[in-house]
């Protein structure tokens, strides 16, 4: 390359007739990587697969049509004559190929692939990789500044210029460090020259915007060279020529220059400023390489504000420039908010601009940009708003313009600009909610009334009304703010509360009426997103009601109880559903508040239950479901009012057999039985008889059976006499046993005609690919698991450190129940041994007894559980979940003490290690690897002797090496578990010196290996999110092991250390810091910094 420097055939390149860039003067070695980028790119395409001779001929013809009058073409050919004769053909061919290939995807629609099938798959990779190649860009310069003389050529040139500008941006972002300051100034002159030419010649907006982006990118990388970029760019625009940055020394003030710009020039400067403010978000302003960038922005504040002010001057600029000024101001706000929200140097100067934007709201052509900015300022950037701005907005909201806009919105105009108007009103209310609720002046009260009115606009929420949900959010905020204000100073007079509360209650009145369902035919005609959105809006109304309850109290319950009764008496079923829905939503607030019992009694003793019975009234299914769900919501009420329980339960057992009602009724039965078990246990036989009747008539689907069986189990659990309790349990388990037998029959005789469950129209648990046999087996297991949960004792305080809680006396009846449960589990798993769902539910069944301290059917004998677990092999689906169950099993044994369970736990540990041994690698089954490590960690922390004295010893050795292998792996969850294991093991402190000696001997062998693994991870192999977990064993190592320093030093210098960016001195400094911190929390930060150095600065988070 050096030989080219003095080549006599090389001539200067003329830029706009103002400057010459002489290759001999600049030096190809210094600037070469920035001078022939696109040329190299085009030459590299000579081997593009799929480019036939016919295509080359066609593209050559295309290029001749494009460039035959281009004055730059001769210059290019002359300048690059050293490349030989083929050069012209190659440039012609590939420039045409660029145009014809990229035009469809870049200028018509977003590309799925920027390469047409005819031209192979390698052109785009060439373009973008060559854009980052070590070759520079005079062809980019020429392609971006050539003058074409006819319309079609201008269009083609525009496409090529776009790529020239894009290439420069890529080079600036990737290789700006290769340019000296002088080189950078020369490049700036080129860029400004292109920009001015494009503006003069009417180049398409895509190219002009891309060039403005290139200028912004230049500033961000070379802010020291182009410090006052706004002032300088305006100078160049005013003089219509590219000038060096030092020309500002003799230039007029920025305000004077800006006043001389016309609308187009003002827009051109605004585009560059906007790009700077938007792109700076990609830069870390705290990094050393960007030092001074923030200060450079501050230095541009006066010129930038003057420029935006000029653009907003209606007398001297166009509406397009005005819109661009507002958009630029929005970019300014975003930057100021991200960079330093407390820096008034960025916020105070734009006050007059914000005032101008408020005035622009009433101008139709400027409305969109203005309203977007004002909503943003009110919602996120209130620091930019002064009291004067707020007053200006308040006056605007009291004008005829506001009334016209508001009425259009209320009458159902939900076009984008109308919804933006509503957002503006809500943003203002949200920003001033503290003052609005306490002010009693006419303007404030009118504004609150208008905000309340937004909840009453025409149309159904979401499907039609687009402002309802944002308005709900405002009123929820209003209610919460009002609550805080009322209770923050309880001694204050708070004379404003009644008026403020009246607005809240009116908002509630508007809101509940808006969530009345439409007629069924209309609702099903909506698309799925509209239906989901409407239902979500109903949930938002409940959130509002719950917030208002803290203000209005029982009055709110009384209101909706009255609405329920009113709708019931008038047979307004849709209104009945909405009122019952809202009343149910208040249940969590009512809880044990007896002040609401009178209002609730008026509902539950009304004709409502009679009307809900089959055949009594033509109530739509949705309304019946919602009313039945009221019973479930108010279970605490029924606990307080036992006399109202029988009619409620009678109703539930009547309607649970109807498919539309099954789910709501079954849930209510479960909740009532669970909550009121102490009052219902004498009725256990009656519940079993009702259940028997429903089952025999085939009226229940799987979901209903699961909930009812669980509810009845709750009632049985409360029976004081153990014999009666176990007898009832046996009867309830008989239903499950019948389902198990039915599933086995269906498995062996699929055509037996036995239906798995009530499936009209479909079972809630039905799956399309599920056989009737498996469906029935899963139903049996779900019911079994539900019974296990129901039999769990209510939450009580248990002294785990006291005497053994469980009775040791054997009970034959209890043993029989436990055996039958294990038998059912074994039968189902044996018959359906490929189903992971079967294993998942079995694990739930087993866990249901682990937390119990009293004997019970599901408090299974430990040896039975251990035997079941150890019989499972690697071929068992979800075997990792069974290992997780073993973790819980170990914890459950603490009730009786682990001392007597060593032999059993030894067998379970060997089973777990055996499963891990069978894996081809730890990542073959991440769930098993993770849960296997967690099991051993749990066992180690509770009884270290079992692992330290494990026989055979090679099992323990395998496990230690396995965890190290996992620690070096890529699976995040097993890796985290391995890190926890090593933190526990390194920090292990045993009761006996003998065990401590065994642990220390193990660490002598494992310590160096662990240190190597940690070094590899911290040296770049780990992901960022894993560093805190990996820091834990590192800290324990430093604190507990005297050899830690030498082990870690060996690990950091080992050949397996992954990063080449870290010097020996940096490793030594890191080790010194780690050792000196002695396991302190600051170790985590040191580890993160070391990891970042190993990975490279591209992995740093931008601030």
From TrEMBL:
Q: Where is it localised?
A: Nucleus
Q: Spell out the SUPFAM superfamilies in the cross-references.
A: ARM repeat
Instruction: Note the superkingdom of the native organism.
Output: Eukaryota
Pfam families, from UniProt? TPR_TNPO3_IPO13_3rd
Q: Which residues cross the membrane?
A: none
Q: Mind listing the UniProt keywords for this protein, alphabetically? A: Nucleus, Protein transport, Transport
BP-aspect Gene Ontology terms: protein import into nucleus
Q: Which GO terms describe its cellular component?
A: cytoplasm; nucleus
Which InterPro entries does this chain map to?
Answer: ARM-like, ARM-type_fold, Importin_beta-like_NTR, TPR_TNPO3_IPO13_3rd
Hey, what's the signal peptide range on this chain? none
UniProt-listed PANTHER family: IMPORTIN-13 (PTHR12363:SF33), TRANSPORTIN 3 AND IMPORTIN 13 (PTHR12363)
Write out the similarity annotation: Belongs to the importin beta family.
**Name of the protein this chain belongs to:** Exportin-1/Importin-beta-like domain-containing protein
Per the UniProt entry, what species is this protein from, by scientific name? Fusarium euwallaceae
